[in-house]
């Protein structure tokens, strides 16, 4: 799938996995928050892990086609209760910002969630990530009750039902 001047595709090749891992590592480094409470180091070392099909998906955005510079990523994994998936690790490199890539990644991963039969997608975002929270709200997410315990005060939990 293409959008603007970038190509979105599932992470399948060794090159894709390497580039997705670099993006997820950059995401973690950009936060200034220790994500050990989420098992971040183990997640990063085992990508795609729970984001692998058939229950999950990881999408990678490149400038142009295969082999081009990676611009961003997003991931989806199953989450109890049945029919619910969690969106994670949305990240766009600074050079890829301002081109609609964040919204394109969100819409693409929601499409994958629908295709896989999920009825609902949830996510969490940190309180200082106002742009991300605004993006999620533009994509139809609304505040929900926390679905896990977090040590980060003010974490925002959002959810969205998926229509047919």
Average pLDDT for all residues = 92
CATH class: Alpha Beta
How far do the termini sit from each other? 20 Å
Instruction: Write down the CATH topology.
Output: Aminopeptidase
Helix content: 25-40%
Q: What oligomeric state do the depicted chains represent?
A: single chain
What integer value in Å does the Rg equal? Answer: 15 Å
**How many domains make up the coordinates?**
1
| Poorly predicted tracts of residues | none
| Biggest sheet architecture | 8 strands, mixed
Number of helical stretches of at least 4 residues: 4
CATH superfamily caption: Gcn5-related N-acetyltransferase (GNAT)
Total beta-strand segments: 8
Helices, strands, pairings?
Elements: E1 2-3, E2 6-10, H1 14-31, H2 40-45, E3 57-62, E4 70-79, E5 84-92, H3 101-115, E6 120-125, H4 130-138, E7 142-143, E8 156-161
Parallel strand pairs: 5-6
Antiparallel strand pairs: 1-2, 2-3, 3-4, 4-5, 6-8, 7-8
């Amino acid at each position: 799938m293409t959008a603007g001047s970038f190509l979105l595709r599932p992470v399948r090749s060794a090159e894709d996995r390497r580039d997705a891992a670099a993006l997820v590592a950059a995401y973690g480094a950009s936060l200034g928050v220790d994500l050990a409470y989420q098992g971040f180091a183990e997640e990063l070392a085992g990508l795609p892990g729970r984001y692998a099909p058939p229950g999950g998906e990881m999408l990678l955005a490149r400038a142009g086609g295969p082999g081009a510079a990676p611009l961003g990523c997003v991931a989806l994994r199953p989450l109890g209760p049945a029919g619910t998936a969690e969106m994670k690790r949305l990240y766009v490199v600074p050079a890829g910002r301002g081109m609609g890539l964040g919204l394109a990644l969100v819409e693409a991963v929601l499409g994958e969630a629908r295709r896989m039969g999920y009825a609902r997608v949830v996510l969490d975002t940190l309180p200082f990530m106002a742009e991300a929270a605004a993006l999620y709200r533009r994509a139809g997410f609304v505040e929900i009750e926390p679905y896990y315990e977090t040590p980060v005060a003010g974490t925002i939990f959002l959810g969205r039902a998926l229509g047919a």
